[in-house]
Structure formats: C-alpha cells, structure tokens
Specification:
The complex is a heterotrimer.
Chain A: E1 3-10, E2 17-24, H1 33-46, E3 69-70, E4 73-74, E5 96-100, E6 109-111, E7 114-115, H2 119-125, H3 147-157, H4 164-168, H5 175-186, H6 195-208, H7 219-223, H8 231-244
Parallel strand pairs in A: 1-5
Antiparallel strand pairs in A: 1-2, 3-4, 3-5, 6-7
Chain B: H1 14-21, H2 27-30, E1 34-38, H3 42-54, E2 57-61, E3 79-80, H4 92-102, H5 109-129, E4 154-155, H6 161-178, E5 182-185, E6 188-196, E7 199-207, E8 213-217, E9 220-223, H7 244-251, E10 256-257, E11 262-268, E12 291-295, E13 312-313, H8 315-319, H9 329-341, E14 353-356, H10 358-384, E15 393-402, E16 405-406, E17 419-421, H11 439-461, H12 472-491, H13 497-512, H14 518-538, H15 550-574, H16 598-601, E18 603-608, E19 615-620
Parallel strand pairs in B: 1-2, 1-9, 2-5, 9-17
Antiparallel strand pairs in B: 3-4, 6-7, 7-8, 10-16, 10-18, 11-15, 12-13, 12-14, 14-15, 18-19
Helix pairs in contact in B: 3-6, 3-11, 4-5, 5-11, 13-14, 13-15, 14-15
Chain C: H1 2-9, H2 11-36, H3 43-55, H4 58-88, H5 99-102, H6 105-108, H7 110-129, E1 135-138, E2 141-144, H8 146-154, H9 157-184, H10 193-220
Antiparallel strand pairs in C: 1-2
The chains are: A alpha+beta, B alpha+beta, C mainly alpha.
Amino acid sequence: MKLQLKIWRQNGPSAPGGFKDYPIDNVSPDMSFLEMLDVLNVELVKKGETPVEFDHDCREGICGSCSLMINGNAHGPETGTATCQLHMRKFKDGDTVVVEPWRAKAFPVIKDLATDRTAFDRIMAAGGFVSVNTGNAPEANSILIGHDTAESAMDSAACIGCGACVAACKNSSAMLFVSAKVSHLAQLPQGHPERAKRVRGMVTQMDKEGFGNCSNTGACEAACPKEIKLENIARLNREMMRAAFTE
Amino acid sequence: MLDSKIPSGPIEHKWTERKFENKLVNPANRRKHTIIVVGTGLAGSAAAATLAEQGYRVKVFTYHESPRRAHSIAAQGGINAAKNYQNDGDSVQRLFYDTIKGGDYRSREANVYRLAEVSVNIIDQCVAQGVPFAREYGGTLTNRSFGGTQVSRTFYAKGQTGQQLLLGAYSALMRQAGDKTVEIFPRHEMLDLILSDGKARGIVTRNLKTGEITSHTADAVVLATGGYGNVFFLSTNAKASNCTASWRAYKRGAYMANPCFTQIHPTCIPVSGDHQSKLTLMSESLRNDGRVWVPKKVGDSRGPLDIPEEERDYFLERMYPAFGNLVPRDVASRAAKRMCDEGRGVGNSKLSVYLDFAESIQRMGEAKVREKYGNLFQMYEKITDENPYKVPMRIYPAVHYVMGGLWVDYNLMSNIPGLFVLGEANFSDHGANRLGASALMQGLADGYFIAPYSVGNYIGSEKMAAIKSDNDAVKSTTQAVVERLEAFKKVKGNQSAETLHRKLGKIMWDKCGMGRNEQGLKEAISQIKALKEEFWSTLWVPQDDKCLSSEIEKAGRVSDFIELGELMCVDALERKESCGGHFREEMQTPEGETLRDDENFSHVAAWEFSADKPKLHKEPLKFEFAHIAQRNYK
Amino acid sequence: MASLKIFLKSSVGRKFLVGLTGLGLSGFVLTHMAGNMLMFVSPEAYNTYGHRLITNPLIYVAEVGLLVMFVVHMGLALKLALENKVARALAPSQNPSNCEKDARFGSRYMALTGILVLVFVVLHLITFKYGPYYPVTYNGVEMRDLHKLIIEKFKSPLYSGWYLFSMLVLFVHLAHGFSASFQSLGLFSVRQCLIKKLGWLFALIVAGGFFIQPIYGYFYGGN
C-alpha cells in the first residue's frame, strides 16, 4: 500500500506547529498504525531527518499512552480501538492520512504528536482513591459485592486514561474520564465513606485544569477505545448533586 | 561470599522472626529521611505509597508520562493467593511448593515461602482499595486456575487484572502525592546510580521533556524497574521497557543474578511480518478452556475446520495427562516449538499451533466464553482479523518475563548497601521459570509488605552523613551521564537505535532463546561483540537533545541491552544444565524434558561487573523444606 | 452550605442549573403552546384565556420566575460555552473532530440555536406583549383582542416565515436540550433510548403545535 501522510510537526510547547507531507510506500495491511510510523521514522533517520515523536508503550491497548488524531478521529476510524491496535488494513491504497496530536488547552503539546496529560494525574490526586493504608485492610471476603455490581464497577474502571474523550469533545471536556473514575468507586461499598469528598475534589480539580464543560454530545463515548458509557456521566452528575447536600 | 541473610529457624517463622529483629525508626524521625523509588509499576507504586504512609519523604521517578502507564498494567490473567476460598486443598504450603517446583528448584526457598505467606494480605489490601475483582453471585470472590497448579487460586478482574491492581496501587500513590508526602517525577529516566562511601545515595536522571540532566540524593534507593525481556527486541514487554536502571546499577557494582533465565510464554499471537514491533500475549487463563492442538500429519495444509477430530493431535493433553493444557509455561512453549520443528506447525509461517475454544463454546455457550474472555478474543480479532469464536486461535511462544535480575538478599537489598530491588527487577522468587499469575503477586508482595519493612530497618540501623549536591560522587556521576550522551551524538552514523536493536534481538532469539547450545552461545557472544562495534560506529541520534527525543532514549537503552545480551549468553554458557526456561539442548531427558544437574548447578549465578570479564559469584541454594525432585507434570 | 456552594460553582453544578432551568422553560413553552391552541376553538375562548392569565395577580410572580429562569439559563449557558471555546484551543488548521459527526446534530448547535431563540423571544414580546392594543368586549367585560393581532401578523408571509423558521430552531434546541437536561440532572442518560425518544417527541409536540398556528392564520385567518 502507498499512503500520503500529513503529520503535525511542532518543535516544542510554545513553538508554532504545522503539517508536513510524508509519502510512504510498502505499507503492509498487517502493520499496526504505530508500526507504520516506526517504518517512517527509520526512513527519516536514514536521511538524517528528525523522526516524528509520538507517545506509545504497551501497544496492546491498555497503557493509554498512544494518542493520535487520525483523519479527525481520536484513535482513528475504528470504534473501540486504541491507535496501537488499529491496523493498516482499515485504510485503502492511495489514502491521505492526517495525523495530529490531541488538541486541548489542558493537554499542551510537548513535541510533534506527544502531549502532556498529567492533568489527569492531578485529578486523581484530588480524590480518586480509597484512603486505606497498607495493612489496614479487613479480610477480603468480609466485604460482599454482588456479581453484577462488581461487573458494572469493572466496566467503569476499564478506562485507560488516554484522553481520547477530551480530544473528541468539541469542548475538550474531561467528564467521561472523571466520571468513569468516580463511578468505579461510587458503585463499590469500599468507596462509600469518601463518596462526597471524592467527587467534589475531582470535579473541582477538573475545572481548575481548564477542561471544558460537558454538553452531552456523546462524542466522547463514540471515541473511547474502552467503550466507557455515557451513563457514567449521569452518575457523576448525580454523585455531585448528592455531595452538594453532604458535608 | 554472598550472604543472603536468611533468618534462622523453621521456614514458617522466618519472616515473623525477621520483622521482629528489624530496627525501627521513630515516626517523627521518618520525615527526615528521603527515599528514592524508581519505577511505578506494581512494586514501585506500592512501595512508594507505603513508605510515604509510614512517614518517609519519597521521590518517585518514572520515564512514563504517568505512573499509571507502567507495564504492570498489561498483565491480563490474574494474581495468585493462598486464600483457599475454593476449598480445593490450597494453603500457603502448597503455593510455596508449587512455586518452588514450577521454578525448577532454582529459587531461594525462604523468599518463596514469605511470598506465599503474604499473598493473602495482598488480596485484602487490593479489595479494600476498590479493585473490582470478579465475584460470585453471592458476593464472594471467585477464582480461576493457572498453569502448573491443580487448585484454583487465581483472582482476576476480567482480562485486565494487572490494570486494576496497578490502578489500585497508583491510586494509593496519588493519594500520597495529593498529601505532598510523595513527589512524582514523570518523564524522568534514571541514567545512573550515585554511590557514596559504598552506599547507594542517589540517582542521576534525564528529564525526557527537556533533556535536562539532574542528580537526586537520598538515604536509600529502591529500584522497581521491571524486566529486560526487550533484549530480544520482540517480546510481550512494552516498547519502552528496558534494563538501563538495573544495568547502570550493575556497572556500579551490583551483582546481576541468573541473567539467562528468561520466560518464553506459550500463548502469544504469532509474528506477522518484518515490520513487527512487539508481540501480544494471549493470557494463560485461556488455557483453562482452550485446547492446544496441531494436525497429526506433517505438512497438513488444510484449514483448521477441515481437519477431522481424529486427525488432530492435542499434544499437551497427550504428553501431560495430569496437567493437560495447564502445564507450566516453559513446558508448554517447548512442546509447541517441538511440534513446529517436526513440521506440524500451522498458519502461513508454519510457526504456530492452534488454541481451540470450539469445545468450550459447545459446553458453556458463546455468551459464557464471551464473559470470561471477551476482551482477549476482541484483541485477537483486531490484530489478526480472524474471529476466534469461529476459527481456532493461532499462538506461538514469545519472550514474556525474565526471572533473572539484580541479586538481592532476603531483605531485597542488593550487595550495594541502601540499594533495594523489587519485583521483576530482582531475581529472587521464581527460580528458572515463573508460574502464571505470580508476577503480580511478587510485585505487590515486595512493594506493600516486604520493602517497607526492609527499608525501615536499613534506615534505622545505618548512620548516614547528609549528602549534598556538590559532593564529588554526585558531580562525577552526573558528568559521566552527560559524557555518555555526548558520545552517542558523536557517532553520527546512519542507523537508528531501533534497527540495531532488531539485530540484537535476532541473535538473542536464535541462539539464547527457547533452545541453547554451547556452539550457538559462543557464536552469539562474538556476534554481539561485533554488533557493539557496529553500534558505536553507525548509530545516528539527533544533535538536539534538549527536547523530547525518543532516538536518544532508545540509544541509551539499546547500548545497555547489547552489553546485557552478552552477559546473558555468558551466563547461559556457564550453566551447563537445563532447568525451567533455560534449555541447554545438550542436557535433556530421552523424552526431551529438562535435565537438571543439582550437584553442580544448584546455585544462583551472580555476576560482578569488571571491565574485561564479568566475575562469577555463587550463592548455593539449600532446600531444607521443599523436597527436591525431577519436575513431573505427567 | 459550603458543599452546596462548591457544587453550584462547579461545571457540573452550573450544568445542573442550566438543565433545571431548561426543563422549567420547557414546561413553560408546552403550556404556552397548549394555551395558544384555543385559537382553533374561537377568538372568544382565546382572548378570554389571555385575559384571565394577565388579570391573575400571580402573573407577576410567574413572570419574575420566568425571567429568572431565562437569565440563569442563558447566562450560565453562554458562560459555559465561552469556557468551552477557551478549553478547545484549536490550531487554525485543525478540522473539527469527526467524532462530532457521531454526536447528535442538535448538541453541536445549542449556543447558536439558543441565541436565535432569544432573538425570537425579544421580538415576540415586542410584537405581542407590547404590541398594539385592540379592545374587544365579551359578556360585558372589555379585554384585549389578541386574536385579531395574531391573525393580522400571521397574514404577513414574511412574519409567518420568520415564525416558522424560529419554531424549527426551537425544535432543534429542544430535541437535544430536553433529554440532555435529564442527563445533567443525573436522572437518565441521553443514550438511554427512551429518554432520547421522549426528547424528540416533546420537541415535536411543542414546535409542531406552534408550527400549525401561523399556517392556520395565514390560510384561514379569522374565517
């Protein structure tokens, strides 16, 4: 396969960026999207040009590092898939492929396609935990949790924190991420003692980081590689309202 | 002589004894001590959070953008614990024994017993943090079984157990970060270890965003930097997983133990072409319900659905009737390789075997199979474009884990005082082969329950002068890091580090992979020496290193991998026996199983760096409590 | 009290207020539309209904309430929309995300349709509430002949066209807004099919009701 790549190049957080064209040959349909970029980078090195920087690590769709906007889609055209699991068989010979970083004020570009998503960590530090010191724990089976509740909490907890929800949202809202985190613990008895404090802390930090506001468009759900459901946002709203009347 | 500092007394009392002997630090004094933790996987995050909870000042370093992206996150299947919730005869004793036997009697008995002992606390801790383990309808925890055991002791959260456990440890860490007891340095890579008066007193890091080189000092350094499986280039490890932290410590005098012990995992998605950048694991839990087979006939090119039942060879069930498809990983991998060597492999490359769910789907229905393994099946389909509900999966062994690592004593301290090594980065618990679902167990055991005691004891028993940033050792170590980066830039060749890494990987896989022999290892050593020269004459990195530059990161990692690869071959050559994942073709039983040489090799091979030739130290392994025997899974 | 303040200042709390006031306003347009339907009964029924409404002393309370809802709804929604623009930080060359195409049509244009509705409301008040006064007497009670006024206005194709256009805009606004309010209140999820369909149905009833009135006025006005 032959492709025409248009890749966003930007030298640093404050440097101006722009698209650059890179034609690429010999793309195998079995390659992953990132392997295609690896091939491009090897070619660039041979020519003494600086390779394209992009975040990636596990390449199994679980670490949440990869983060490309491909033809305007967060993580590319396939649903329920992170960029690292997107394969070139989803493209056609001769396609033009536009590759950009996540765009959001709260995710500044570090270089080229790599962005800084540490805002998510600060949100987590503001309440995304159960306060239990090592050694404090009671016997595991003394906390009974119904099968369906555990499964539902797991579905929320499956979020990989990649930021696709923010990138896909026209408002750069982080509501799907935050709501998945809040929902995971709100559904479990272990999370109940700190329920109000948690949601208040996380939402306040989210606002402080400069993410936009949710306008219920559902674009986040459509882009999420782990198919985290919009129901989580409704639950977050509910938790927040509940917290308004709890000290 | 290596002192492993194992407490005396019966094995069940050793850890209790040690905890009592340990010196303590007054809570008010703890905040005067800084501890550096490198790595934020299960072991690193758990240790950092726990030490901070105890009151120490903790600085945490990771080359990832967020602590939560460490590679523990990719573990799929589960975590073992001797809870005996299934009432099927499990106990601490049995988990201990299974692990010793699974490791082919090359692990340290006292460490393994302690691991089994604290395994039960891990599950309690994780549940309290809100880890959504799978549950029965009555609300209690459920289990599944893994290879090398005949009980169900594996706890799991769908096929994302590692993710959920890491998110638990990460949340504990972020809680401390919010309380400002932990300072986190993301996108910082450790490039050297600072020693002062022979003690580990700090590290030198590169800020990956800005290229800035800085030194950080402390009273103790904890390395939880994972394994070096990427020495093979293709492995199931994450792309950035590397040996640099360990290797830098090795070059500063820490011993590297059993470096040749690597685990080849039997169920990975086969290589699809030269572009392949990494391999994807299919969880071992699949072997609970999937059946492994190849055609009986050599060179059978029919599709899997066209091969009738009687012409299929369910070779694991045939060769190992007692454990069947759930034999340990090294055994299953070698059996698959043997089938392919006989010409009975399947797929285009003929380098894979089938993992078939047809029978399970018939037995429990597609919906149940989907609930148990849905995300794994989905992952398989994304990568291969084949529907595993309809057509059997194709799998082949791939490098997955390393049992070898920095040498540590019973307290998880290396031979350098003040340098602690946890999780996959140390060598201690898995011998020559690790059982499935035990890596998560070890990472969390080390991080939550062992290192915090040992580090406290070290701080409590050492008198240490404050170390300043103008200290000679700090300055010279920082300078060495800067010079090394300059050296990469000076080569000005035309090959990327990744290209050189692929070449190293091929040598290692061919000669130091699933089967090893004297001639091959000798060839490998000379080829690696040549590759090292090629590296230093043809490498290209960008001249600008004051920004994010993955080429510069990779150059450092690959140059260390090349040196480590050579040591692995030296170690493999030295160990003239077959055990666990280390299969010396010269040493095998008539049936092709591993043949240990307990008389000559019942020891840990700990290598000390020296400029011309590494020096071997041996720690003899004594088995007082486990009955040593030939492994038998038949 | 402190937690209530945190809630109301947060993005979630402000969205909650937008949703709540939105639902209140939805209730208002529904009753308004239903009341207007009296024009199909007779001019007398229509005018008497209007007269009873404005002579009820509670009307002032209702008007103040309505005004507050309007101001809160608009003010907060605009502030949120402006924050969203800042948060996006689009590079000029950037295309909008394709995922937006998966997002519902109405949800993308809430601010725009909201502003159009506001323009309509202001003009609407000028035209009718503060428009010409035609007296009429039924059973000895003098009242305003609003029926005459609306027919007069609907007779103009220009006015009727603008009115119809505005009702289309209202439809788009309500189709997303009604169901999204439930999501913001944490009651249901937009993606829950039922509430989504209910949103469409509600918008259809309200806008549809308003829609047939000028058409009727234009073609059959007063006959």
